[in-house]
């Protein structure tokens, strides 16, 4: 399940509740108006009850619309923040690669390592021999000052999770 799925489902449920509640409110308002036009004498309590229900439904509609608006704004903020984080992480990665002096081929391999591909998969994607990818990986680790893939990945995880201050 993606992180935003629960919020999207919640927004859809709120939207359907708004539609259903609006239809109910319209029914009760229409019924009150029809009873007023008919002029029935015995409808005082009945009209008051239906009018109260319609009022409560309209207030509920307002609350639901407010909640839906807040949820949609929150979803937009989260999406914007994630996009910014991805962009900043890309800049951080490029900064590390530039500091280490990685060649274009090493940059490609390093990105694929960060994406979780193993050496054989990287070799297949790049159309190179697995030995070439292992040699490039070793050069990347040496330039980064780490002993292997796990430490290499942890450099970026630490940067991602680091306190901005």
TrEMBL record:
It comes from the Bacteria. One of its GO terms (molecular function) is DNA binding. Pfam families: GerE. This is Helix-turn-helix transcriptional regulator. GO terms for biological process: regulation of DNA-templated transcription. Keywords: Membrane, Transmembrane, Transmembrane helix. SMART domains: HTH_LUXR. Residues 99-156 form the HTH luxR-type domain. InterPro entries: Sig_transdc_resp-reg_C-effctor, Tscrpt_reg_LuxR_C, WH-like_DNA-bd_sf. The keyword Lipid biosynthesis does not apply. The chain crosses the membrane at residues 12-34, 46-66.
């Amino acid at each position: 399940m993606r992180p935003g799925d629960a919020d999207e489902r919640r927004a859809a449920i709120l939207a359907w509740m708004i539609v259903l509640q609006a239809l109910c409110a319209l029914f009760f308002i229409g019924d009150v108006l029809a009873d007023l036009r008919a002029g029935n004498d015995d409808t005082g309590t009945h009209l008051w009850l239906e009018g109260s229900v319609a009022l409560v439904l309209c207030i509920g509609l307002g609350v639901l619309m407010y909640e839906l608006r807040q949820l949609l704004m929150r979803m937009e903020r989260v999406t914007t923040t994630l996009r910014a984080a991805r962009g900043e992480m890309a800049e951080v990665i490029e900064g590390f690669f530039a500091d280490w002096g990685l060649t274009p081929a090493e940059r490609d391999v390093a990105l694929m390592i960060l994406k979780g591909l193993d050496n054989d998969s990287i070799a297949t994607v790049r159309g190179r021999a697995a030995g070439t990818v292992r040699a490039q990986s070793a050069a990347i680790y040496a330039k980064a000052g780490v002993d292997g893939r796990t430490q290499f990945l942890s450099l970026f995880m630490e940067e991602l999770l680091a306190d901005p201050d």
